Amino acid sequence: MYALLAYLIIILCFVVLLAFIYGAVREVWRTHHPGERFWKQREKKERVQKAPKAIKEPKMKPVKERKAPREVPVRPQVNRARISAAPVPVAVSIQHTPLYKMIQPHITGDVEESSAERTKYSRDTSLFTKMPQLVVYPKDANDVSELVKAANGARAHGMNVSVTARSAGTDMSGGPLTDSIVAVFTKYMNKVIAVGTEGDHGYAVTEPGVFYRDFEKETLKQDFILPSYPASREICAMGGIVNNNSGGERTLEYGKTARYLEEVDVVLSDGTQTTFKALNARELAAKQQLPTLEGSIYKRMSALISTNAKTIEKARPHVTKNSAGYALWDIHDPKTGTFNLAKVICGAQGTLALVTKAKLSLVKPQKHRAMLIVFLTSLDPLPQVVKKVLPFNPESFESYDDHTLKLAVQFMPQMLSQMGLVRATRLGLSFIPEVGMAITGGIPKLILMAEFSDETAERALKRAEDARASLASMKLPTRIAKNEQAAEKYWIVRRESFALLRKNLKGLYASPFIDDFVVPPDTYPKFLPELNALLGKYDLIYTIAGHIGNGNFHIIPLMDVSKPESRKIILELAPKVYDIVLKYGGSTTGEHNDGIIRTPYLTQMFGQDMVSLFAETKRIFDPENIFNPGKKVGGTFEDIEKDMIRSM
Ligand SMILES: Cc1cc2nc3c(=O)[nH]c(=O)nc-3n(C[C@H](O)[C@H](O)[C@H](O)COP(=O)(O)OP(=O)(O)OC[C@H]3O[C@@H](n4cnc5c(N)ncnc54)[C@H](O)[C@@H]3O)c2cc1C
């Protein structure tokens, strides 16, 4: 029996290895043979999409009739190079829409209204779709300012226009979706302006359209990182990181983006530009004297904060991460006496101002890491494991479940084919035990990864071993990965978990609607059984991954969204989950933010008084509701129902 299993494992590994080699060879072939059939077919498709048509008034077809892209556009450069090589058909007379005519003359960047361009931005990674009327790629902050002024001008002409910012579009809440103007930052406003050292820490000044992966390449040149980077680090950009107040695998030790945001350059709702940063009492008083929108914002916001200080402090979420609502509790810092509006811009999803530049402080990453991996066959011991491991101060404490691991094994060749041959082979071989587990049905229910960082390899390893020793009496299967290379496979599965779900399950859509709640970890013993009992009442397949050390769970059900009964579950289950989360002092969202999917639940979380203060904040910054309407303030359950995708 065991011999047979061993043979099966060897054969499977051989097949997996062949698949890597095939993937890698195909990649090399594709890169080095641009004239091959693959590119020809692709060019043909793009020529068809790109051919200018006589554009009439954009009579908006219902979004469901159009085929939305399945993928967030991640590396547009590749397509651009290909598109420019395509022969340009003879121009035909183009009739632009009134909105285009109002906006385009003011913009030095690009303004697009073709169906193909608009469709590209009709999705993020949420459950929703909205078709923008106009796509604007601003060149710089002045362009953004002109865009906002022109949008106000269009309003004056009776057009119902708004402006929604978009960086990389990986948002899971519907945050960057709009049926009006979308301003896309990744095309031009994508430069890291400076990286340097100030006192004992580093800093970087960046435009919003810089992908995190590129940002980190620059900061690492000076041995710094932004430790709040999200799991979507390869596909998301700095504008989204700041405006969602993102967190990630190192948030347990380092906190979220708001902690690192020193200054933001913004365009306000009247099109004026300013910088928000910490001000002392004298500077605040001077700002309040300004006869401008900025002056009015300072005057009214400081009055709002001081008049409602008790209500605001009472509403402060008592979890280690929160992106729900506006962070009114962070604007005034009683310790330093400063007043900092950058704190409320962080996480505001572009509803208060558009960010054109951000200054972030950076930290020096520790050089060495070791990981303790704990395999749980049921969720019962989880609370105790977390309680025992947290005192050893892991830098990260993450998890993923059996469904995620099965998907990773199933789609391993695909997952690894994006890597170089050597790395893919090394990683592929390191997965042999997991392949064995999948074959024998021995996959654990939950895999916990506690990573310890330190100045030397010995110290990091010692901490991981001490944490393991603390679990000895529980007799759980554990493993130690002595360094980052040994831990890499666990990180790959954890980071890829949501992407795996999105790509590979035909007919079922990875549906983020209870994807990001947070509870204090010491409530697990009571919270988890209640949550399990509730989820057990629904016939759902779902994966669980998340930041277990922060109490932040990513539960992603797989659903057939074309069925009305699935959509009904989404609206029925979410408030029930939040009832339990809030009963234990939690938050509806730790990092993915409110967007379309959670804005209507803000009253459930904060109560009416706080929601009124959020609405007042929005009115102070954006009296005409020109920025990203329906997110944070004014979003309804009907919006959730209306904008939800109906097909994949
Ligand atoms: C696989 C996967 C894993 C993820 N893991 C995490 C995680 O670990 N932690 C986490 O926090 N999130 C995570 N996310 C969600 C998302 O990737 C992050 O929140 C990310 O920071 C969003 O960046 P983006 O550039 O894609 O933003 P976008 O989706 O473009 O925008 C996000 C929000 O910010 C606003 N915005 C963007 N640019 C600007 C600007 N210049 N001015 C004003 N507003 C702006 C948008 O309007 C929108 O509301 C994950 C998503 C995926 C798909």
Account of the protein in words:
This protein is of the alpha+beta class and 648 residues long. Helix content is 43%, strand content 16%. It contains 26 helices and 18 strands. The chain has a seven-stranded antiparallel β-sheet, sandwiched between helices. A seven-stranded antiparallel β-sheet has the order 15-12-14-13-17-18-16, sandwiched between helices. Helix 11 packs antiparallel against helix 25. The longest helix is centred in the first third of the chain and has 31 residues. The protein is globular and about 70 Å long. The chain starts with a helix and ends in a 5-residue tail after the last helix. The relative contact order is 0.12. The structure holds flavin-adenine dinucleotide. Flavin-adenine dinucleotide (FAD) binds next to strand 3, helix 8, strand 11 and helix 20.
